[in-house]
Specification:
The protein is α/β, with parallel strands linked by helices. Helix content is 38%, strand content 20%. The chain has a 6-stranded mixed sheet, sandwiched between helices.
Length: 260
């Protein structure tokens, strides 16, 4: 479904963030991507959905190279790729329902979307998704009145409103407390199984990656240095993935780091 070939991405004249990265999805399960800050995790995800454009290489999705697409063809491809953001990316002044319905903007005419005139089927589906993520009681509440965990659940529902063929999540729990973080990870993992949806998720928390993911990919300095099942991830692999023992300790003990 998704294959990345020799992907290179630089920002300005600096050293490339991605250095000939090769990666492919395997089945409809949850794949966790781990690595230090600056390893290229976010750049990889943002290259997949074309929030940034790679310098060279290929991103083959559903048999089409996304890097070659422009205009309407790119829009049609991107609406099949759901995205959950660390910082939520919600419109605070809009209601929960309006934010979730924004996941359908790629499917309705521009003026219809601008005036938030969505088909009843979309409204019904949005309500069902909000019920599934436990927010049906907040349909008409403004998003700036929600907690961090509630806002992230809105983000999950909005991504699923696209009816995506793949779901990307960029550090979706990094801004949350440990308890809420676990609730969000459990929700995403359960939805992966319920919807038979491949999920590619960036995580700083190694313990969560090992518990929830069917596959773990480790990046370091823009290249893949580990690819395997959670029980195959050894201390030696972790030392290869992370740049220092102090950083590795932070990833293995996230609650202690949060409490500092």
């Amino acid at each position: 479904m998704l294959e990345i070939k020799d992907l290179v991405k630089s920002y300005g004249s600096g050293e490339p963030v991605l250095k000939g990265l090769n990666f492919s999805t395997e089945g409809k399960n949850l794949t966790a991507v781990i690595g230090s800050s600056g390893a290229g995790k976010s750049t990889m995800l943002r290259s997949i959905n074309r929030l940034v454009t790679a310098d060279s290489g290929q991103i083959i999705f559903e048999g089409v190279d996304l890097l070659k697409l422009q205009g309407k063809a790119l829009q049609n491809a991107r609406r099949q790729i759901g995205m959950i953001f660390q910082a939520y990316n919600l419109v605070d002044r809009l209601t929960v329902m309006e934010n979730v319905l924004s996941g359908r903007l790629g499917y309705v005419p521009f003026l219809q979307g601008a005036f938030r005139k969505f088909p009843q089927d979309d409204i019904d589906h949005a309500y069902q998704l909000l019920k599934r993520v436990g927010l049906s009681q907040y349909v008409n509440k403004r998003c700036d009145e929600l907690s961090g965990g509630e806002r992230q659940r809105v983000g999950v529902a909005r991504a699923l409103m696209q009816n995506p063929r793949i779901l990307l999540a960029d550090e979706p729990t990094a801004s949350l407390d440990p308890k809420t973080s676990e609730l969000i990870m459990e929700l995403i993992a359960n939805l992966t199984e319920e919807l038979h949806l491949p999920v590619l998720i960036n995580l700083h928390n190694v313990a969560q990656a090992k518990y929830y993911a069917a596959r773990i990919v480790g990046l370091r300095n823009g290249v893949m240095v580990f690819d395997g099942k959670p029980d195959e991830l050894t201390d030696e692999h972790l030392e290869k993935i992370y740049t220092s023992k102090d950083e590795l300790s932070e990833q293995l003990n996230p609650e202690m780091e949060t409490a500092k």
